[in-house]
Amino acid sequence: MTENQTVNNSPEIAAETKKKSNTVLWVMMVLFVLPYVAAFYFYFNRDQLDLGLLTSNYGTIVTPVRQLPEYDFKNIDSAAFKLSSLKGRWILLSIGSSSCQQDCADNLYKIRQIKKAVGQEYKRISKLFFLMDQKNIASFKTRLKDYPDMDVIIPSGEGYEAYLSNFSYKDMNIEDSIFVIDPLGNFMMVYPKGADASKILKDIERLLEVSKIG
């Protein structure tokens, strides 16, 4: 064995080489994991962060998020309904009148298409509509034939109108807006009337990717 081979095979050299290899491995792991850790941190600590500077979201982030109270709703068939029955899913919600003019009809279509567009993640999303009145309930039911898995809530009880005020945010009109409720039951994002469905979809895809809840 030559002198060089003896030096290269020494325990000290082997230990140093292993140490350097482990260091490189740890650095690579940190670089890989860090973006995911940061994404989770920014999502779950958004109340303390100016997300307008940190993200490119299209929707308006609600700060702080609003934990929605429970309420004894009735669905369009007058059966009892609780928002907690959808807990664990992302909810796309719209609010409108039973006459459901063009903006209302557009929102029904947008919400349906967004859920379809997320592919295999569609099971993580629920669709919800709050009616502001029941004047044209028969015609609204006819419209729902194109949206069979849309949960529709009708006005019920004196507290219903007050409940809808939970969705008032800044100067945005709640009628014909689209709202996002997270899997923990928090109202956390809103889109105004006429919002671009393709841009809403990008936000939803980003939320589904970052969040492992729901």
From TrEMBL:
Please report the organism this UniProt entry assigns to the protein.
Answer: hydrothermal vent metagenome
Q: Keywords on this record?
A: Membrane, Transmembrane, Transmembrane helix
What is this protein's name?
Thioredoxin domain-containing protein
**Membrane-spanning regions, if any?**
24-44
What protein family does this chain belong to?
Belongs to the SCO1/2 family.
